[in-house]
Predict the structure of Prostaglandin F2-alpha receptor.
Amino acid sequence: MSTNNSKQPVSPAAGLLSNTTCQMEEELSISFSITFMTVGILSNSLAIAILMKAYQRFRQKYKSSFLLLASALVITDFFGHLINGAIAVFVYASDKDWIHFDKSNVLCSIFGICMVFSGLCPLFLGSVMAIERCIGVTQPIFHSTKITSKHVKMMLSGVCFFAVFVALLPILGHRDYKIQASKTWCFYKTDHIKDWEDRFYLLLFSFLGLLALGISFFCNAVTGISLLRVKFKSQQHRQGRSHHFEMVIQLLGIMCVSCVCWSPFLVTMASIGMNRQDFMGACERTLFTLRMATWNQILDPWVYILLRKAVLKSLYTFTRRCCGVHIISLHVWELSSIKNSLKVAAISESPVTEKSAST
């Protein structure tokens, strides 16, 4: 231990280091960071390629809004993994010596801003997509006539600007992002919180994230119930059954992944903000919930990649061949889920027209 009592200049980063320490296995941590970044980039790159190909094939108005929002979500996840993963790997490669390589706290601020933005923006986009799907299924005429591509782009821009604003709030309030106890990531101040403003940032982040999850859950539930009601009302409309099956599976997958991955981290941040959780004993748990949230950005593209009609149909056919049991009859898969919902809703709203046409 050094016994030199001479005064030495202290960098700004020194005051941002947490007074607590979070002992983690460095090899395991850096392997997690590299794995998350690599798998996330590859998964989102594959999803972007599929969405671009789908956009080239289906340029219809009813499909463009969904593809635009889905592409924005996947692109946000892609850059979130790329930027945050690269910074995390650099931090591990530099032995977490923030005082040495980030004396002016610029890198920590960038890291914190990217963490908040890449966390909130996908949740906001998921809620917007849920609202768009809910309107498209429950009010197909309003959706087709009032919600244009221009409106969707305006909503997308508003969501992104709002997420950027929330991420920049500490900087605008002359507060710095803090290096966390594990010294592997930067976020709002989470230890020894005594100022109301630091508490406000944590509670705002948690509230907005949980609100986005709640909106997504509510809208997806309404959409699923509406689809099931339409299915039972139009038993003779055989073309829509595969659409119902596909949409219900997609909605369940999206809701489960988002809620399971994000809820622990958001609840943990809210608990810390309300001083209901001792950060000294919650460091490793916080880091674990952060990794769970990161898995959401990895699994998001796979939900859209795997739960498509072609994949589900192949999986169903393979399962039937392996089991040799006739479970249910799936009919010919339509080209578009939104197109099916519009057809089924129109038929359910005009039964007289359907009967006259069938006769």
Observations:
- The first helix runs from residue 26 to 57.
